[in-house]
Here is the input.
Amino acid sequence: MGPHISSYPPLGQITQLKDQNFHLIALLEVGKDVANDPWEVAVWYTFDHHNWSEKILPPLPSSDCPPSLQTINSSNALLYFCSPFFASSRVKFTLKFRNSHDQPWMWSYNVSGVTNGVVIINQEESLDGTEQSLSDFIHGINPDLLVKPVASQTPNTRLWTITATVGPAEEDRSTYHNIELGTPCGYMRYFALVRHALPWLGPRHGSDTISLDKNAVMCSFLNLNGQHLVLLGISDVANVMTLLRSSDTGSVQLHIRNDAETDSDGLVLAAVGHNFESAMAAVMYHARTIPLTTGSDHGNSTPDIQTVSNDVKAQWNENWYDGLGYCTWNALGQRLTDEKVIHAIETLAKNHINISSLIIDDNWQDIDYQGGDQYQHAWKGFEAEPTAFPHGLKDTVSRIRSKHPGIKHVAVWHALLGYWGGISSDSDLAKRYKTIQVDRQDASAQGPMTVIAKEDVGQFYNDFYQFLSDCGIDSVKADVQYMVDTWISAKHRRELTETYLDSWVVSALRYFSIKAISCMSQTPQLLFHQQLPHNKPAMVARNSDDFYPDVPDSHPWHIFANAHNTLLTQHLNILPDWDMFQTDHEFAGFHAAARCLSGGPIYITDVPGNHNLEIINQITGTTTLGTTVIFRPSVLGKSIDAYIGYDEPNILKIGCYNGMAVTGTPILGVFNTSRQYLREIIPLSRFPGVLESSMYVVRAHRSGFVTPALKPDNPTAVIPVQLDVRDYDILTAFPVTWFDSETNGGIHVANLGLIEKMTGAAAIMASRSELQHNGRVVLSTWLKALGVLGVYISCLPDMSIERDFIATMRDEPIPAHTARVSEADAHVLSIDIETAWKEMGLDSWGTSDIEVKVYFDIEHP
Here is the structure.
């Protein structure tokens, strides 16, 4: 591989900076055999498309060069160049380099194919109380639309409602309207979440001319002034679905479907802010305040959701989605039997894989298997398929629970309407409950299906979940929820959609509390009716299309789509679920890292006996009670670059955060979803939740390397990242405590959590460090699970573990051999808490957390 150049601000991206004074830092990767050549790097730049100028970037002294957290190719060398820059307006730039002054310049675009970089100086002047109108951001607004400014709940943003009145459904056929909105002004990038498929959202990106292949729920535009215009179509108001689409001329249109029998209003929210997150929050917060339709009278069969929600008792998350789950779907195929399920569980146990939740997925039910595919197959009765489960569902669940008491929760899959093809028309269910026939029109699901009629839906769900509860089932996965949007009849959608959604939620809360998964439910009406309102406890909801183990190209897209979908779903009343994955798989680490960062549940679907125990040990830990837990960050993982497209040669960066503000831990996952080697420079300031006034050490999970203490406002406080195709890593920024030592000067200390776990910072329940009067530091850590605790101490190479340290659990000294200096970094003290716990024979005292204290003398000679 020839020379490779990268920079911050980065090429090929738009970077918003608050300060007119910034530093441009370039990283040139060259072969070691030419590393001593007189390399030169220059930036070629222009302000607001005026004349281009050139500036030579001087090399950084070796003492100022950022440390690498990854193992560098032994045949390569990294050369840094840096220069201060002043910009009063927008700057476009590119880089060129050469290995001596008499050689021709090599341009970055010709070497790597990366386009120019753009820097926007955004002073973030207040938007509150400004006189700007929406026409300042959208050119040629349709005068037939009603545009009204409204108060925004998000500081420093402007908000408007856009209303379009549309005609009623006619003869049971919905009315569709395409209404011109206008063209967003002077934007450089757009990002949209479209209906990637009927059940799923997916991201779309582009530059200065919007072109969408599918209808969008939201669109965001970054303009030349660094302002973000976010448009959000609202659905489920008066039985209206409002989406966004692009025209052939690059304008935005409203695509509105009216199922109501009267004129109705399609509604779009528009917000402008100085950053994407605040503009997105503005439209989502206001969406929560919009009264959604109660278009059908449920009668007494569907109690009020709020009433049932008030009866739901608070539960520890650890009892549900904080444990490791196992799903049968990809693991056991599509013809389940009770013996297959039990064999899979026993195989997990033999491999010491301790799951706390089991999902018995599709194909446990009694299905008629009529028609050509699953979309035609219909459900016959509550009891499990009699041949595959000859002793019934209750017997299977009872055997599982008696032999494997560590499995606390057993869930079953079912479709919202019973099965993919609804209810079998000649079944016991059809005789027990009133049914109707509805017609579907979709590429996959076509033709008629039988479903429970409106007046019996509430009773049906109550009876079904009572049966499941009696069988020992305590959780459910309700799938295929989008099917209600395939119905041709406006009347059926109008009268049944809300009935089914509310009846399901009520019964799920009544029988299973929060232990329910909503799946294939990113249809617009479901997003706004089921998942946005905060009148009930948050549920788990699938965040993207499925994990497809045998489709190689699906894996990077899966991670990319989830990271961008969360930019919207983070504002819903749900816990986003990034789907199951297999640990014995080419992309196992890729998926595992993404699940750990997501902040959602983690469950695997391994074929029995095919397990990667190393991966499993990196995503889970064992508590003092012997249970297995995962390490979920407290803030959801999401893309930190809303406008970077899937096909662009840029690293996908997924940011999350754990703990309290100021004292918490920023985490950044980096993923190469492209088809080429990538290198980027990532400033510490880009990590979520980083404070300029604080200091951090950054640790890479895969290498275990740790930086010295860094301050985010230092221009060289950057992390160089190199990733091969389909490669990944997790970078965690740990807050540093500074102690003054008379004999050793300033000493930096950081609690690294459980260092062998991908998101081991999330194992820290609480942490405190203090300097005692005798010159000894004590670091107290409360952990949610056992493992290897890491402590960064800047002067550790000059200290002696035997002389200067003591560690305790329950105030008893741990065995000396369980503490050692990390092989990956000489500044990290690693303490094997798990081994120490076993050897000390401590009792859990009925609690899963454990306190560890580390004492060390900073005044050692």
Summary: Residues 134-289 form one domain. Confidence is low (pLDDT under 50) at residues 294-301. The longest strand covers residues 21-31. The radius of gyration is 29 Å.
